[in-house]
Structures are given as structure tokens and as C-alpha cells.
Amino acid sequence: MKLIVGLGNPGTKYAATRHNVGFDVIDYLAAGPGVGAFREKFEAFVAEMKEGDETILLVKPLTFMNLSGRAVRAILDFYKIPVENVLVVCDDFNLPLGKLRVRTKGSHGGQNGLRNIQEQLGTDAYTRLRIGVGQPTVGDAVDHVLSKFRPGEKAVVEDAIATATQAALVWTRQGAETCMNRFNGTDDKEKPKKEKKPKPGDQKANVDEKKPDVPTTND
Questions:
Q1: N or C: which end of the chain has fewer CB within 10 A?
Q2: What is the CATH number of the domain that holds 86?
Q3: How far is CA 140 from the centre of its chain?
């Protein structure tokens, strides 16, 4: 059994916002053939998808973004699913609009849903699929992720959601390594980067070491 979790906030108020692209991918998967109806349990909407003899649970937590890990923890405990069989799909405002990035571990990067999942699971060793929703203006992160996409952005986002759905299916069928190779692109392989030594007086040397966080109020 495997688990694909899409992160977002429940309710019509948040539908089609940048923060809800994870929900959109789950809905896209759930529209496929042979997928059962969503049922509410474990503080989430849960549907079952079959891939051969394997059951894939499609999950949309209903706890609001900041407490997403509560639903994930409950499902893993109940079904005894190992953490390596978990894929989490979420937004990332540190990525360009429509860009995908797949990782098998690493920092939550300021994404509060991932932060809570890692707190609940006690590990970062689960696969995450991030979808770029574009960068906010300085100090405007909350308003940005809770906003809807502009008309000129919608085609890019729709393509990204469709591609992310394919990436989730590749992860399910062929594993994380193949998924990363296919969907991260040749410029985004997991290679060590050479550390640049800051020059004297260089105030920008450490600017990207810590990604901005989204405040936890109704996030």
C-alpha cells in the first residue's frame, strides 16, 4: 500500500488558490478510471486507487495546512504504511511558476504542511513533489499563497498540475528515482553544489541559506 497526500486548505474559500495545488493533483488523480469515491476519515478525504494488485490511498487532509501531519500520521499508523511509501504534493513559492521538483528527503523549506508532517513523523525521509506557484513580493507570503492565480498564469498552472499527476503515477509505478530523473529536468539533479566563498563586504552571500516561512495563522 502507498499513500499520495495533496496539501491544501479545505472549503470553497480556498479552492483554486496557490496553496491548494496539492488538492488539485489529488482531484486529478481521483478523476481517473477505477478510483473509488472520497470518504471522510482520519481527518481527511480519502479515496482508493488501484495499481495492479496494489492499493494507493489518495488523501486530502481537512485539518488546514498547518496540521496536515495529523492526518498523515493517523493513516500511516492504522495501515502500517512505511514512510518510504509516502508521496506528499504541495505548493512552493520558492520555485518558478509551474516548475516541479521531486525530493526523497530534505528540509520543509518553510512550507508549513511539510513542517508539520516532519514533526509528526519524526523524519524527513518521505518523497515530496513541490509545484512552483511563483514568488511573492517581499513580506507578502501569506497573501500570495492564499491568492488565486491570475488569468495569465492559469494555463501554466493547469499544465503543471497535469504533469505533477503524471509524476505521481510514475512514482507509484516505478519509484522515486525514476520520478526524479524524469520530472526534475537535467538542470535539477541531486548533485552536491560547490560552496562559494563570500567576498569581503558581500552582503548577499547567505541570502538563500534559509527560505522564508509562511506564518502559521490559518495557513
A1: N
A2: 3.40.50.1470
A3: 21
pLDDT band at 108 (very low <50, low <70, confident <90, very high): confident
- Active-site residue (options: 2, 18, 19, 99): 19
Total domains, the chain: 1
CB atoms within 10 A of CB 7: 28
- The answer to whether residue 64 scores a pLDDT higher than 90 is yes
Confidence of residue 54 (pLDDT cuts 50, 70, 90): very high
Domain residues for the domain of 135 are 2-183
In a domain, 216, yes or no: no
| Alpha carbons 184 and 19: distance in angstroms, whole number | 21
| DSSP string computed for 197-215 | PPPTT-TTTTTTSSPPPPP
d(CA 162, CA 207): 33
- Identify whether 197 is part of a domain: no
> Which tens digits make up the pLDDT trace of 13-47?
999 999 999 999 999 999 998 899 999 999 999 99
Does the annotation mark 19 as catalytic?
A: yes
Residue 89 resides in a domain: yes
Residue 38 lies in a domain: yes
